[in-house]
Amino acid sequence: MTGVPIVVVGAGHAGFHTALFLRDEGVEAPIVLVDGLDGPPVQRPPLSKSMLLGEAEPRLEFRKPEFYAARDITLLHDTVARIDRERHLVRLGSGRALGYRDLVLATGCRARHLTVPGSGRAGICVLRTPHDARAIRDALGRADDVVVVGGGFIGLEAAAAARKRGCTVTVVESLPRLMRRVVSADISDHFRALHEAEGVRVLTDTTVHAFDGDTRVRQVVLADGTRLRADLVVLGIGVDPEVELARDSGLAVGDGIEVDTALRTSDPSISAVGDCSSFPTRDGTRRRFESVQNATDQARVAAARLAGRTVEFDAVPWFWTDQFAAKLQIAGLVPDPEAETETARIGDAADAFSVLHFHNGRLTAVESVNRPSDHAAARRLLAQDTSLRPDDARIPRFRLPGTAALRTG
Amino acid sequence: MPKVTFRAPDGDRTLDVPPGTPLMQAAVDDAIDGIVGECGGNAMCATCHVYVPADAADDFPPMSEAEDEMLNCTASERRPTSRLSCQLPAPVHDLLVELPDEQ
After folding, report:
1. What is the pTM of this model?
2. Which chain B residues in 12-51 lie under 8 Å from chain A, judged by CB atoms?
3. Among residues A82, A329, B11, B29, which one has the fewest Cβ atoms lying within 10 Å of its Cβ?
């Protein structure tokens, strides 16, 4: 293929799927996928889940290496040092210049590090890349005492894996409850109880003051002076969007690279998709999501637009996490705890139930624990602006899957 | 080794698939264009939709309620023979599945 390529920067879920969907859309331009990691592009969800269990390594590659040539996608293991927007070219880390017809930034996020005394000691790890995950997996085989800093999805998945491998595990969370940013208080309480029942010690409203030890970390010192033994510390304190390239190029950047509803940045020949993209929502605010769903749905929209179709990004967000025997799936956005909301719980089992959230009488989110069919139904209902009301969901034997079929005809 | 044929509007592709391998995995490994599998095989995205032969129900594990629900979210028409190929281990004999127009 000849012509000026569409260049995609980053080959995580968003970048890989952008390249794939461009081909599926019938785009004939050359496609160049630039990625800083070695090897074929990989998915990340298993890194904090099955990867840490120390069993057979899960399949990470989206596709075999031959796939890229077969679909005429050029995979460049390189970085992008800067963008020359006037001349429509990127300067690669290797020094080479590469012209682009359109540029798609799928630069993702980087894991936050904690800057407290001793945070440079060995044995303090973040979990973002396959390399990070393999290092933690191997360290878990040698560790007795593990401290996880951060009680979000990544931290709690790591804590569950460490516990399953027989380590003594403490989770240190600075907020009053676990997964505060994305789940309701009911779900936070459920997962705290689950972790504690499995033998994980959970400390909320607690911050880390320092890491003590020698070359390696030996103790985590909490703000109140308490010392926790630690052979291994896993930091799960969030990520920051990779925006430097965009900012240095003069693109509009806030909490992420700012795009419009068609995922164009302030330069119409540059798009941003996935974890790094800050997009406008119907209520006028901007959002940035770190999720597989957001990455693939944005990739689909960006690819369709670059293929010449008129499209807008307006997808129902969904998320999932696996901790011990619990699969938590969330469809929609759980309302802010301060907002006036109504909830309805369905499912009588202690370990399998869903919580429905309504705001101004409208269904806005469903959290499901080990109820995947509720989750699937919820995604369908939320996409269709359901007329379901809180009282409907309180009728005995109410079923969300049945509702999806009934209400949508 | 058993052969699985993926029938698409633009022709058939036949692969040797070890029994037990999820059909979605076999398809993406051999760059079958009509299968995306964007959630990585978790029955959460409905982008590995296939139509199985009407008489093949016994070849596969029964459909879970979650798969049933996800099949209501497919891009192409759902039929009685619709399944998510990430939930289908390859059988011990040859098989032909049809791919929908869109995932």
Report:
1. 0.93
2. 25, 28-31, 33, 36, 38-40, 42-45
3. B11
